[in-house]
Please model this.
Amino acid sequence: MNSFSKLCKCKKCNKTMKFKKESGGLYCCSTYDNYGKSHCDRVIVKEEFLKSLVCRRFEKELSDEEIREVIDHILVEDYLLLEIYFKNNEKPILLQGKFIQF
Ligand SMILES: [Zn+2]
Model:
């Protein structure tokens, strides 16, 4: 499972995030992963978490394929600071700490 490959970007360095199998699957800033903390922060988000947010928006379970059809890109600053943008100009999902806009 790897629904969000190439869709997640680190908001700090603007690079595409890398999929890693650890902790059940997560995305990590590729700059941090390749060059270390002097180049970017350890920005990570779990795949399951992203998936749960998208499924909550649509109020149903979506397959990986369906997810890739609706999502344009995701900006991740931290696992509780992220923005999910959709292809059809639908309102984005904005997560800012305890505040979330669906
Ligand atoms: Zn980064």
